[in-house]
Amino acid sequence: MAGRETRKMNMYQGVRDALSNAMMRDDTAVVFGEDVAFGGVFRCTMGLAEEFGRERVFNTPLTEQGIAGFGIGLAAMGHTAIAEIQFADYIYPAFDQIVNEAAKYRFRSGGQFSAGGLTIRCPSMAVGHGGHYHSQSPEGFFMGGAGLKVRTSIHTGSCLFDIFVQIVIPRSPIQAKGLLLASIRDPNPVIFMEPKVLYRSSVEQVPIDDYELPLGRAETLTPGSDLTLLSWGTPVYHCETALHMLGSPPESLARHVPQSLRSAKVELIDLRTILPWDVETVAESVSRTGRLVVVHEAGRTGGVGAEIGAEIQKRCFLKLNAPVKLVTGWDTPVPMQYEKFYMPDPLRILDAVVETLTY
Amino acid sequence: MASLARIRPTIQRRLPLVRAIQTAADSSQLREGASHSEPFTVKLHEDSFRGYRTEAPDLDIEVTKEQLLTMYKQMNVVRRMEMAADALYKQKLIRGFCHLAIGQEAVSVGMEHGTTHQDRIISSYRTHPFAVLRGGSIKGLIGELLGRQCGMSHGKGGSMHVFTPAFQGGHGIVGAQVPLGAGLAFAAKYEDKPIATYAMYGDGASNQGQVFESFNMAKLWNLPCVFVCENNKYGMGTSAERSSSNTEYFTRGDKIPGIQANGMDILAVLKAVRHTKDWVVSGKGPILLEFVTYRYGGHSMSDPGTTYRTREEVQRMRSTQDPIRGLQRYIEEWGLASEQDLKTMDKEAKAEVDQAVEEAKQSPLPFEKDLWSDIYAKGTEPPFMRGREREEIHTF
């Protein structure tokens, strides 16, 4: 950050800054979605309509399938279409448009048309009291539905591929701004999921210039040698808390954390891009540490963790010292009253780390 | 429900008849003598159109001899092409899904003549004629069906996925292209282009929720979009009456005006297209346009098309309301060309298609490299991808 002008921003301001940067440089860029013209329910589009005009920042009806289809058509004409689905929980009516139209337009037209200019933003994950329809993390559905693009190394053998909506989830304002700008400008369609509890709670000094962060690349936050802890979005913070607890457990937990584990070096990785996920960074890490714990908010069955676990056990089978452990939401609706028990909190993560280290 | 369905036709018959659209293919009349060199005016049958929340278009239409002969030739060519596709499919040279538009030629050819290639047309999966008429070639179309290099999508799309710069596809999911059409129209409006976007769908797709979502957005934002319902009476194997509570598809836009047009008379189609193009380009917002037409074949190649309707019905439509025979009658009766001239054109159409089929058959299967192309935007590919077997790895 040295030498760059920064401003203190929370994540919704980071998102807003990215949108503003994108629209400034690109006259074809338009922002649309439910209530975005007056700022959006999470304020991510505050003042954009005033800044860029109502022709470029406008409200849509409550029409998720229509919004997605409209955006694909607009993108097919060479525009930069930035759609907002008000909550990730509402994206399901658009599933067909995303999976069948956006993801396949380029391929089935032999490259004549594509929805590459489309980015769909949606607030995702839990805030603690959202319940069934405001706390879901649907990234796993798109991972399966849109297909899997995996980076691989020739020497480690096979991987799968298919077609081609990318899924990106940032953890902070700096990340949100850089990844969103990269998503908007990426010539392939992207679903950008913003962990909504971080909109206000996550604050950083964000560069005010126009910058991008790479898609498809995980970021290692803390290097380590004994266990790889992999997450994205909100639970990255719970992982950090869990690692603090591991190093110096509060008195009430001390008897559950063996003395020998307290100096364990845990490598914390933020996956950032869910599809295509950075299998090389994760596999390289697990090959060194021999242990992997994956943490995500979505339910376990058919989740992203299951996919990662399967790939890692294949690539790192002989290096693993413990089974790949998943810490996830439960396979229930996100419960209104018990949301904090649904989410993978620091205690559950700590428990999983201890179990995996002592396996 | 079964008993209801039995009763329904009886009830309908007893109701006082609203004046219905007629679908004869040859009921237009000359206003004056038909000129061989100058444009001349034809009066369409008075039941060619119905309007909803708007006046129906007037019945006069100006045409030229050259245009009528071109339309005749094109209708013949696209029908021959569809027949060739039918034969190739039955020889198992075309695999997968294939939907033919035989019987609906007046719609595709009429629309081609009422629009320019700056206008946008996006449609469903019964679109071979559109792709060819709007900048493609017969060879490219047949090649695509055969999955060959010369295919319009390099042999990678198949029947449902054909595109040209003037034709935005070619979409296989029922109704999914309609909101895309709203997006295309928005782009035109945003760029201030004086063009029309035609978002087409069938009577079956008209019951999709996203079609109504698109109507709403288009009206809300006053988009220059014509929503075209190609009503061929059957959504797959279910007749319109059995699938739709309101079969007057041109009235389904709520506040959006609509026009119903005889989709078997190419002159009525042409008039309706010109009328709706003027409508949207002049800033009046969206409009619905229903073409009442008929498909002779089944829904797709795997549907014989005779389990949900009688052979007699199909035969009757073929023999009394065929759009090509209708235009033929105009041309002959108005003295624009002789029967012999038209027969020669028929032969030429057949020869043209036969030759294209042979050329397409000669085209090799797609390049192996095309297995890896058009997946990601150029330059954003992963380092490499795995192919059909373990050892096959493609490096970008």
From TrEMBL, chain A:
Enzyme class (EC, first level): oxidoreductase
Keyword Signal attached: no
SMART domains the UniProt entry points to: Transket_pyr
Keyword Metal-binding attributed: no
Record EC number: 1.2.4.4
Highest taxon, organism lineage: Eukaryota
Listed InterPro entries: THDP-binding (IPR029061), Transketo_C/PFOR_II (IPR009014), Transketolase-like_Pyr-bd (IPR005475), Transketolase_C (IPR033248)
Entry cofactors: thiamine diphosphate
Catalysis performed (reactions): N(6)-[(R)-lipoyl]-L-lysyl-[protein] + 3-methyl-2-oxobutanoate + H(+) = N(6)-[(R)-S(8)-2-methylpropanoyldihydrolipoyl]-L-lysyl-[protein] + CO2
Pfam families, A to Z: Transket_pyr (PF02779), Transketolase_C (PF02780)
GO biological process: branched-chain amino acid catabolic process; generation of precursor metabolites and energy; response to nutrient
Domain Transketolase-like pyrimidine-binding residues, every copy: 9-201
Keywords, comma-separated and alphabetical: Oxidoreductase
MF-aspect GO terms: branched-chain 2-oxo acid dehydrogenase activity
UniProt protein name: 3-methyl-2-oxobutanoate dehydrogenase (2-methylpropanoyl-transferring)
Source organism of the structure: Ceriporiopsis subvermispora (strain B)
Automatic annotation (TrEMBL), chain B:
Domain of life of the source: Eukaryota
Keywords, ordered alphabetically: Oxidoreductase, Pyruvate, Thiamine pyrophosphate
EC number(s) given by UniProt: 1.2.4.1
GO BP terms in the entry: pyruvate decarboxylation to acetyl-CoA
Keyword Hydrolase recorded: no
GO MF assignments: pyruvate dehydrogenase (acetyl-transferring) activity
Keyword hit for Oxidoreductase: yes
Top-level class of the enzyme under EC nomenclature: oxidoreductase
Cited function: The pyruvate dehydrogenase complex catalyzes the overall conversion of pyruvate to acetyl-CoA and CO(2).
PANTHER family attached to this UniProt entry: PYRUVATE DEHYDROGENASE E1 COMPONENT SUBUNIT ALPHA, PYRUVATE DEHYDROGENASE E1 COMPONENT, ALPHA SUBUNIT BACTERIAL AND ORGANELLAR
Protein name per its UniProtKB record: Pyruvate dehydrogenase E1 component subunit alpha
Organism: Ceriporiopsis subvermispora (strain B)
